[in-house]
Write a structure and sequence with these properties.
The radius of gyration is 13 Å and the shape is globular. It has strands at residues 3-7, 11-13, 18-25, 33-39, 46-51, 58-60, 68-73, 78-83, 92-99, 115-116, 120-125. A hairpin with a 4-residue loop joins strand 7 and strand 8 (78-83). Strands 2, 4, 5, 6, 9, 10 and 11 form a 7-stranded mixed β-sheet that branches. Strands 1-3-8-7 form a 4-stranded antiparallel β-sheet, with no helix packed on it. The relative contact order is 0.31. By secondary structure, it is mainly β.
Length: 126
């Protein structure tokens, strides 16, 4: 089994940057498909970004494309989300997720991921 732990969330002003970390333990995640989701206040969990296992191709939601970057450092067993140009609408609890068997067409679907972290709060003030 794998355990995930997010960190790095905090209060930041609009236009600022943050880097979230998702540290994995229990096994290596180098061959997993990994993703970031977020849940804004009063809303459902939504896809943010994913890093697919085969070749490490990256995918983003339209709302963060060009501002956020997902990456993974296998030697650290850690995934990151670099967030630039933050907006108040980016305010949410951010979750990382991982799965070994998910197919490409399902990477935006939260229900397809087996393992989740506990979340980290990102608040962007205007």
């Amino acid at each position: 089994q794998v355990q995930l732990a997010e960190s790095g969330g905090r209060l930041v002003q609009a236009g600022g940057s943050l880097r979230l970390s998702c540290s994995a333990s229990g096994r290596t995640i180098s061959r997993d498909t990994m993703a970031w989701f977020r849940q804004p206040p009063g809303k459902e969990r939504e896809f943010v970004a994913a890093l697919f296992r085969n070749g490490g191709n990256t995918y983003y939601s339209d709302s963060v494309k060009g501002r956020f970057t997902i990456s993974r450092v296998n030697s650290e067993n850690t995934m990151y989300l670099q967030m630039n140009g933050l907006k108040p609408e980016d305010t949410a609890v951010y979750y990382c997720a991982t799965d070994q068997r998910i197919i490409l067409s399902s990477i935006r679907l939260a229900r397809e991921y087996d393992y989740w972290g506990q979340g980290t709060q990102v608040t962007v003030s205007s």
